[in-house]
Amino acid sequence: MTSFMLYHHPLSVCSMKVRLALEEKGLAWSGRVIDIVQKQEQLEPWYLKLNPKGVIPTVEFRNGTTKVLTDSAHIIRAIASLSEGNALLPKDESDRPLMDQLIDLADDIDLHILSYARHPSMEKSEEILNERIQKTLLMSEKHPKLSANYVVCANRSEKTKKFRVDKQYIETVENNALEAIIFVEKQLQDNDFLLGNTYTVADVIWTVALSRFDLLGYSSWLDKNIFPRLASYYLRMQQRKSYTLAQVQSHWWSK
């Protein structure tokens, strides 16, 4: 039996995807919350040794030996491929390409930048990024053996600062998201899930994406008068037990 140790944050989109995949799979897991806002724990040396890019989530798969995965897309597919637990892959192999297409459509939406761009307090958002960069530089001097890792972390934060106020980039992201939503609306038809009547990894990814749109105030994208199938689908996904257990967040919180 495989056990899982998940390093995550409640409001992280990628963390939500992994938590939801674990809950839908019906697998027990342990977790440690990584404070990426106040303490910036993702920049601590012990965590960088687990996840060299200093991002969340990270999962330790323990089954006799310990395997560490650090990319949420790889983590979710690894969870789905396990023989134990509920199936998260299509029964028909011919449906795999469509599932992959739906996953890619959601994953290609830069929810990270949108989250910082539409934070209810731009000052708070700026403060978080500045503190992150400052700590990155400080930790790089303190731990020179990890300096290359800290450069990657600093560059990522600088990129976030740049693009979150780039109106043209934000508009491009929003247009791409809207195109993906239109595709999903057509795909749903009268189905319960994205691939007919079978819940798959694609539903995991899109449930979290829709919850983030909800949090960011893209109400028209979830309007039952504009996208009736998508709105109904989102409501059904919210009513699933896994949605609550995985702590999928659709509202801002102070921490």
From TrEMBL:
Residues 2-87 form the GST N-terminal domain. Keywords: Transferase. It comes from the Bacteria. PROSITE patterns: GST_CTER (PS50405), GST_NTER (PS50404). Pfam families: GST_C_2 (PF13410), GST_N_2 (PF13409). The keyword Transferase applies. Residues 92-255 form the GST C-terminal domain. InterPro entries: Glutathione-S-Trfase_C-like, Glutathione-S-Trfase_C_sf, Glutathione_S-Trfase, Glutathione_S-Trfase_N, TCHQD, Thioredoxin-like_sf. GO terms for molecular function: glutathione transferase activity. This is Glutathione S-transferase family protein.
